[in-house]
Every structure is written in C-alpha cells, then in structure tokens.
Design brief:
Elements (H helix, E strand, L loop, with lengths): L2 H7 L1 E4 L7 E4 L1 H4 L2 H15 L6 E5 L7 H8 L2 E5 L9 E7 L4 E7 L8 E9 L3 H12 L4 E9 L14 E7 L1
The structure holds adenosine monophosphate.
Length: 174
C-alpha cells in the first residue's frame, strides 16, 4: 500500500459540517483492512523503541487506532474526552474555537511524571485542539511528549500553532 493509495481511500465531503469545510472522511479508509493495517504499521515503525509509556487518544477519532498502536509498542491507552464523560476527578483545559469555547478533560491520575507520552488524533486542521491538549498534558508534568496525526491539512498551517518543544509527525499530508 502506498501513501497515494491511502489518500485515494479518504473521502472528501464538501460543506460538512458547515459550508466551506472540506471534510476528510476517514471511514472509507478504515473499512479497508489493508489500509487499516498500513496506518497501524506506519505508526508502530515510527514510535516503537522510543520508550513511550502511554498513547493518549483525542475524542473521538483519536480513539480508533491509538489502542492498537499502544499494544504494539508496549504502552497503555489514555483517553482525552469532552466534558462530563470521565467519571473520576479530572484536569481540564478550555480553548477558543471558531464559534465559542471548547473544553477537554483527562483523569487526574491518568499520567505520572515518569511517563513518555504520544498524543494522537486523526487529523491536524488549525491545531487548536491539539495545542490545548499539549498544555493540559504539560500541566501534569510528564517526561516527554510526542504528537502524531494520521492526516495533516498543510494549507491550514496548524503545525505553527503547536508547542515548539514537542516532536510532531503526520503520516499523510493533504
Ligand atoms: P483543529 O483543532 O482545527 O486542528 O481540528 C482538529 C479536530 O477537528 C480533529 O479532531 C479532526 O478530527 C477535526 N477536523 C477539523 N477539520 C477537519 C476536516 N477538514 N476534516 C476532518 N476532520 C476535521
């Protein structure tokens, strides 16, 4: 499987969820087992041997591949969720979106200062969601942070919004 073949499998949906957005629908790739395996294997080869102890997935499309990757590299899985979903004590971060404020939460005891973490989401657009998550994880005082996306929309320059101390990588660029 090549990068071009994977790109061809991702459906572009114009004007979803609002007019003007070209939505990258990854479900058309995920339903193909070779594509699914390619995505997982690419991540494994990038992140195996880096001492990562927890893979942190962002709700909700960041939950799809992250646990499979975590098992392959000998790490655990930690979810970052929207407010009101996690049952125990949480830490949270709020950030501005185009329309209003969004909040993300993690369990307070999800990480320790000895953790080396990989933050993972399906797609980097403006970078607001991931930058807020990086801030929240930094507050918890981990040893090192890696950031990964399956897909990156280069023209939105979301990478520039991300903390310069973290290593950012995307499998496929649009
Ligand atoms: P952002 O904070 O702008 O980087 O947005 C990132 C989040 O919104 C990710 O969780 C993506 O799944 C989702 N997202 C934003 N724009 C798109 C798009 N054009 N296609 C698919 N998902 C998107």
């Amino acid at each position: 499987m090549t990068i071009e073949e994977v790109k061809q499998m991702i459906r572009n949906v114009p004007d979803f969820p609002v007019p003007g957005i070209q939505f990258k629908d990854i479900t058309t790739g995920l339903k193909n087992t070779e594509c699914l395996r390619w995505l997982r294997d690419q991540l494994v080869s990038r992140y195996k041997g880096k001492g990562i102890t927890q893979v942190i997935g962002l709700e909700s499309r960041g939950f799809i591949i992250a646990p499979a990757l975590a098992m392959e590299i000998g790490a655990g899985f930690v979810p970052v969720r929207k407010p009101g979903k996690l049952p125990a004590e949480t830490v949270e971060v709020s950030y501005e979106k185009e329309y209003g404020i969004d909040t993300l939460q993690m369990h307070k005891d999800a990480l320790t200062e000895n953790d080396i973490v990989l933050l993972h989401d399906d797609l980097l657009a403006t970078g607001g969601t991931m930058e807020a998550t990086i801030k929240m994880v930094k507050m918890m005082g981990v040893k090192k942070i890696y950031v990964n996306f399956l897909f990156e929309l280069d023209f939105l320059k979301g990478r520039e919004a991300l903390d310069k101390d973290v290593e950012v990588d995307s499998l496929i660029h649009f």
